[in-house]
Amino acid sequence: MGKCNGRCALVVICGLQLVAALERQIFDFLGYQWAPILANFIHIMAVIMAIFGTMQYRSHHLIMYAVWLVLWVGWNSFIICFYLEVGHLSQDRDFLMTFNTSLHRSWWMENGPGCLVTPVLNSNLAPDDHHVITVSGCLLDYQYIEVLSSALQVFLSLFGFVYACYVSKVFLDDEDSFDFIGGFDSYGYQPPQKTSHLQLQPLYTSG
Fold first, then answer.
1. Any idea of the CA torsion for 81, 86, 91, 93, to the nearest 10 degrees?
2. Helix (H) or strand (E) segment spanning residue 135
3. What is the pTM of this model?
């Protein structure tokens, strides 16, 4: 019963991770954030692999998923520090998120709740084919929305890591016990050979 509960909980957590990752992928596409798009794609594949491994009792799938979650937590921690400008990180270094292919920032910068976008006309700061805007009136600044999104990913990943380790351990214990009782024994089953206790006696004939 405990194994079933652990499997069900892990599937639910993976489902929540999948929904959150797909939602995040959509907004990263809208903002041309190529580095997060690539990381989100790998994360989606890892979550799908974890769901498959949970349903099919594949412990090595869950181990790979747990290893990826460690990297995923590190990536989201970097994003949190990036948008909060911790240490020497600065949002002016947009090439970290866009691979220096565009001047776009987070989609939430212009489309956050309550944001009012005003174009600045006749500005000499804008490069060719671009325009300068001012954003005001936001109920929540875009960097805090990105931080909350990454914090949600870290929160789900911590639960996913714990349950992945637990369920994979249960699967490995079941495999060990199955091998112990002789399941799929590579040497095959050899029935015990019966030894004969019949003794031969000499036969005498009268001639």
1. -100
2. strand 132-136
3. 0.76
Residue 195's CB: how many other CB atoms inside 10 A?
5
Q: Regarding beta strands 116-120 and 132-136, do their DSSP bridges make them parallel or antiparallel, or are they unpaired?
A: antiparallel
Lowest mean pLDDT among 83-97, 153-167, 177-191: 177-191
Q: Which 8-state DSSP code applies to residue 125? A: S
Please report which residue ranges of 31-141 form alpha helices under DSSP H: 34-55, 59-83, 95-98, 108-111
Q: What pLDDT does 116 receive? A: 87
How far is residue 135's CA from residue 114's CA, in Å, rounded to a whole number? Answer: 10
The half-sphere exposure of 20 on its side-chain side, counting CA atoms within 13 A, is 19
Q: Are 160 and 69 in contact (CB under 8 A)?
A: yes
